[in-house]
Design brief:
Shape: globular
Mean pLDDT: 86
Radius of gyration: 15 Å
Number of domains: 1
Strand order of the largest sheet: 3-2-4-1-5
Structural class: alpha/beta
Strand content: 15-25%
Largest sheet: 5 strands, mixed
CATH topology: D-Maltodextrin-Binding Protein, domain 2
Protein name: Phosphate ABC transporter substrate-binding protein
Number of strands: 5
Keywords: Signal
Number of helices: 5
Order of helices and strands: HEHEHHEHEE
Helix content: 25-40%
Length: 140
C-alpha cells in the first residue's frame, strides 16, 4: 500500500504529458547559450560528448522509471523509455560510450549542475533558479 501511494505521489508530482514544462539546463557560467534538438539527441544518445563549443559535457539523466524521463525522451527522440533503455543496454557494452550519470530527483540534478560547470540535465521549468541557464526548451 505504501509503495502504491509513493508511486502515485511521484506520478502526480510532474506533468507527464507536457514536455513543454521541461527545461534543459547547464551551469550559469557555461558559455553555451543554446543547443539544437539534434545536438541534444546526440548528447543524450552517447553519439557526441561535447557541447557545440567543443567543451566536454557531463550528461545527467534520471534513474529508470522516473516520471520526467519518459516525456523527455519521447519529445526529444520520438522513442519511449523502454526503447531508450534497450538502446543503452546494447551500446554500453561496446565500451565506446558511457551512459549519462543517473540521479533520483530533479533537486539532485539541479544541485550537481550548480556545482559542475560542464554538466547538462533537465528539470521541471518551475525549479529553474538563477544558478543555472536554460539552453533548450520544447515548443508548446
Amino acid at each position: 500500500m505504501n509503495r502504491l501511494l509513493f508511486t502515485l505521489t511521484i506520478l502526480t508530482s510532474y506533468p507527464l504529458s507536457a514536455s513543454a514544462d521541461i527545461a534543459v539546463i547547464v551551469n550559469k557560467d557555461n558559455p553555451v547559450e543554446s543547443i539544437s534538438q539534434r545536438q541534444l539527441i546526440d548528447m543524450y544518445m552517447g553519439k557526441y560528448v561535447a557541447f557545440p563549443n567543443g567543451e566536454m559535457a557531463i550528461t545527467y539523466d534520471y534513474e529508470k522509471s522516473h516520471p520526467l524521463r519518459s516525456p523527455f525522451f519521447l519529445a526529444l527522440t520520438g522513442r519511449n523509455e523502454s526503447q531508450i533503455n534497450a538502446y543503452w543496454s546494447r551500446i554500453k557494452f561496446s565500451g565506446k560510450v558511457s551512459p549519462p550519470q543517473y540521479f533520483s530527483s530533479p533537486s539532485a540534478i539541479l544541485e550537481n549542475i550548480v556545482n559542475t560547470p560542464n554538466a547538462i540535465g533537465y528539470i521541471p521549468k518551475e525549479l529553474v533558479t538563477g544558478d543555472v541557464k536554460v539552453i533548450y526548451h520544447f515548443d508548446d
